[in-house]
Fold:
Amino acid sequence: MKNNPNIVIIGSGMAGSGAAYHLSQNGVKAKMYEMNKHYGGQTSSFTFEGKYVFDNGPHLSFTSDARIRELFADSIEQDFHTIPVKVNNYWNGHWVKHPAIAHMNGLPADVITKCLTDFVNIQNLPTKETYDNYGEWLIATYGETFARWFPMRYGQRYHTCPAEKMNLSWLGNRLYKPKVEEVLNGAINKEAPNVHYVQECRYPKNGGYVSYLNKFKDLAEVHLDHTVSAIDSKNKKLSFTNGTTIDFDQLISTMPLPELIKILDNVPEDVRAAAELLSASTCVLVNIVIDREDISDYHWTYFYDEDFSFTRLSFPHMQAANNVPKGCGSFQAEHYYSKKYRPFNGDLAKAIVDTKADLMRCGLLKESDKILFENAWVLDYANVIFDLDEPTASKTVLNYLDQIGILSAGRYGDWGYIWTDQSFASGENAAKKALQLTK
Ligand SMILES: Cc1cc2nc3c(=O)[nH]c(=O)nc-3n(C[C@H](O)[C@H](O)[C@H](O)COP(=O)(O)OP(=O)(O)OC[C@H]3O[C@@H](n4cnc5c(N)ncnc54)[C@H](O)[C@@H]3O)c2cc1C
Structure:
């Protein structure tokens, strides 16, 4: 290794933190550049009026990686809550536990009958090795009625893209594949067991999710409010919107791939075209605090109905009591859009008005509740949309970055449906490669 390799990290989120951590463990203090005025990227947390804490989208840690779980816990001196997670669904005015396929009790009898009939009938069909798209997989896994009325309907609202236009690379264990007995039991028995893929989570007692980065942010030389505007990969130079330029021996980028390609010089036309095919959802977050805490028994709720403005709802005061003053409760509603499939018109005031009206409609907000705080903001990059263009397009872009020696990491740098622990590990891996390349 060079005595003191000049390794530069773009981005101060989980992936940037993972990279800085691995480098520091190997005696290297990297330079980190972050366009925001605050640290943490997607895992940032914000405190409003000195007392209302909201994360940049609902975040809980459910990592199964014991090493990273311990690193996160150590970063907050073991000061976390352990939360036995409860999740439910709101479908056509009915509340059912999640996953709905294993908890149909409470739905109208004709809905249960149709879903069960289809589900039982598909049990005798031969299974395929591969499926052309997510829609086909859903129908083969759950039967046509449940597939169309539940996950296809929800997925269209969350991913903004129809299931028939999505690939399957992101699926993993995200959708539960129940046995027939579990489906039947869930239809008959209101207390069927919790089979959600996340059973228990951790969340910092103070300061929101970003506190998990407490011990990582001093491991690099951090420059906030620095937007990288151009990268000369051949001469190893980075320029910023403030007019300055720096050199690097090795670059680790955690920026979203489409944004990275836009600021790289001399990118071949096919790679630029591939990057333009990559699409991600945009999430409008609406945050509300009220003077009552007994809002819900569940930590988050999926909303299926097309006439609801938000798709998912969570309750930050249930993650940590210190996220609100005593006796208060808070909502965080997620509204999903995308440039490619459902563009957002930019009207945040309407998003707040619609959220409150829909919270009233489903009964979670009451006329008697006093609203103490409300605001909204936009996450430009929320989830990668795994449409049918994505596999080839992301491969083309990632292969090119490999060729020119730029290490891309994290959720939007790997272009994956990955959680905070995986983004952290992705940053660590990029740092390992950076050290090898600067030997
Ligand atoms: C709504 C939502 C809920 C989620 N819930 C969970 C959860 O409950 N649990 C969980 O484990 N994971 C969750 N995740 C996933 C998690 O947020 C990500 O895996 C992780 O935060 C991604 O980290 P990252 O460092 O890869 O990306 P980011 O955090 O986006 O970091 C990239 C950084 O690069 C910076 N940057 C971009 N362009 C430039 C530029 N030109 N110049 C300088 N800086 C730049 C950005 O500002 C950003 O800080 C959720 C994600 C979303 C969207």
